[in-house]
Amino acid sequence: MSEDRQAAPLEVDPERVLAWLQEDSSLQVIDVREPYEREAGHIAGTRHVELVRLSGEAASVAREHPVVFYCRVGARSQMAAQAFRAAGYEAYSMVGGLRRWAQEGRPLSPEGGTVADH
Question: pTM of this prediction?
Fold first, then answer.
């Protein structure tokens, strides 16, 4: 990872994540919440790897593409982003998590999805 990437802010706004998803098909977005949270509602087209399994699944995350992690409010995704950034990935955490994503009117999948309590 270049020094510029290392110095880049760790957190990205949901608005930026949505735009990034629309403009870059190589962006990896990973939901690190528990399975019941994922089932209640999630961002369409994202991958699910719960936080406790993430280190074991790290090899399946492409190093050559940026990765954004998200959770309910941003605490778990921030831990994931920090760990992946320390390992050389271009990693970010979606600030405010899925709760902010939904509060600002962005869609959840499946239709009618909700943000589960943790």
Answer: 0.93
